[in-house]
Amino acid sequence: MKWHHLLTILSASILMASCGANPTTDEASIAQSHTPRSGQSLIYVYWPSDVFSTAATTRVSINRKSKGELPNGSFMCLQMAAGEHQLLVGSQAAKLHAQPNKCYYFKVKRSAKQQGSMMYGSMLYPILVFSSTPDSTEETVARSEIKKCRQVAVGEGESSNIKIIPE
User: Fold this and answer.
1) Residue 58 to residues 45, 66, 73, 99, 114: CA-CA distances in angstroms?
2) Running along the chain, 167 residues long, what does each successive block of 10 average in pLDDT?
3) Contacts (Cβ under 8 Å, ≥6 apart) of 83
4) pTM as predicted
5) DSSP character for 82?
C-alpha cells in the first residue's frame, strides 16, 4: 500500500514539474535567434535534464525581481539592459556586467549536502539539502545543451523575500 501512495505522489510531482507557462511568440523568437534587441543583452539561464532532479524547480531572479521558477530540463531567456546585474538562482548569486548586443549563458548546477540523518524503522537515512548554483558557460556548449531544453515564460515582479548573498 505504501508503494502505491509513493508512486502516486511521484507521478503527480513529475506532471506538475512539466507544467509551466509557455513563452510568448516574441520571447520564443528572440531566444531562438540568440540575438538581443539593439543595445540590450540576452541572459540565458538553463538547467539540462537531470534524472536526480526530475520534479525539482529552482527560482530565478535578477536584480531582486523574480523571473519565475525554472523546472529541470528547461531554460529562460532574459532580455536586459546593458550594465550591472545580479542573477540569483535558488539562493546563490552571480554578478554580471552585461555588454550591449551580447548573450550570456548560465547553467544551473545542482548539489546536495548531508545535514544529519533520520531513523525510519530500523534504517538510518541521510537528510540531504539541495542547492542550485548558476555557472557561467561557454556559448557553444550552452547552445548545444539549450536545444535539448524546453523554454519557459519569464515572469515579472518584485520579490521582497529574496536575499542577496554577499560574496
Assistant:
1) 11, 11, 11, 26, 19
2) 46 43 60 84 89 78 91 90 92 90 90 76 74 80 90 65 36
3) 97, 98
4) 0.69
5) S
